[in-house]
Structure prediction request, 129 residues.
Amino acid sequence: MRFILGVLLGYYMRGKRRLLIITLTAYIGLIIVCSVVLPAIALSVLGLSVMRERASRPPQTSVPVVVGVNYETAQIKLRDANLKIRVLAKRHDPQFEPGIIITQTPQGGERVDCGTVIGVTLSAEDPWR
Prediction:
C-alpha cells in the first residue's frame, strides 16, 4: 500500500499526470478484480457444486405412523408415502388384538429415502389358549 502511494505521489510531484491516471486506473482495476470479480466467481462455482450435490441425492419422504393400525391399512399408508413394508416379527401383546402393528422401525416422522423398507411387528394370538 505504501509503495503504491509513494508511486502515485512521485508521479504527481513530477507532473506526470498521464502516468498517474494510468497507475490509478490499474490500481482501482486490481482492487475491483480482487474484491468483487474473484469472490463472485468462487461463489458461483460453489453454488453450482451445491446444486449438483443436491440433485444427486435420492428423494426423501416422511415415515407415517402405522403403530395401532392393521397390516392392510399400514401397507396402503406406506405405499402412498413411497415406502415398503416388511413384517419382522409376530408376538402376543394383550393390549392389541391380533393383526395390529405393535412397533415400527424407523419411527413415524423420520425422514428416509423413498423405497425404504419399514419393519413392523404384528400382534399375534395368545399361543397358550
Summary: The chain has a mean pLDDT of 87.
